[in-house]
User: What shape does this take?
Amino acid sequence: MNVRRLIPTAALTGAVALAATALTACSGGTSETGDAKGGRLGVTASFYPLQFLAEQIGQDHVKVTGLTKPGVEPHDLEITPRQTSQLGDADVVLYLKTLQPAVDKAIELSGVKNVVDAATLTKLETHSAAGHEGHDHDHAAEGDGHDHGEAGTDPHVWLDPVKYAEIAKGVGAALEKADPSHAADYRKNAGELVAKLGALDTEFKDGLQNTATKTFITTHSAFGYLAERYGLDQEGIAGVDPEAEPSPARMKELQDVAKKDNVTTVFFEALASDKTAKALARDTGLKTDVLDPLEGITDSSQGADYFEVMRSNLKNLQKALGSK
Assistant: This one.
């Protein structure tokens, strides 16, 4: 089990208890958060992909607050009492249920009325850590510490531009409903964003159509939707932490896969150590590179956004897979 990604029960319980006090204390009168909105719609997003949608669609009409700060692994997030109290002040809260248990609990406690669960805006699926038609695999059994929701569903839908566009439409509709006076702008902005995501989908489709191999190895099995969308096979190092050494049995299996499918590269994620990838690469003679699951933007991203990171992922995949 991946201890790194689990949220200590005692810490979460303590935060919830303190947050209840904070909520009571600020229940009468105008909140600091409300004053800071400047007349704009207050939107709180649980992590980067949803924050990006709110900013792109809401633009000048919204004040967006992200619960997960740059460089923080979203699954590790612990909610402060102040953040929980601020949730109650938000006009709209965007989150993806079960991805961040601390957020789920804080939302329940805050009593906020206008909550949008991104998981309801598109269809979640299950994906195998080992690729190759394994879509009925219970993703939670990987032991990576994620709670992937009911029936082992994979939450990483934003890595598929088509599904991300479906979520964008739902977020746009939620903003229209919450702020009808600017509905036309939200509709226009959402439409433009969906068109850009459609163009990105085409870039991936064209860029990965002709490759020497369709198999890639990653320390974090977050790319099931992307792999399925573009006809690739994801081979995750299942049952181990991204920062840990792979088991001898999995090492041997991946060595065989790498040889059989002409794999060249082991990918690691931006918010985790490359220790696992380097250990596997050293023993298999492979290279390492970054495939970013885009769960967060780091402080070193220097203005990079969803589209830039996804295009960087495409470039790295093309290089690893031998794009023709």
Observations:
- The radius of gyration is 20 Å.
- The chain is about 45% helix and 10% strand.
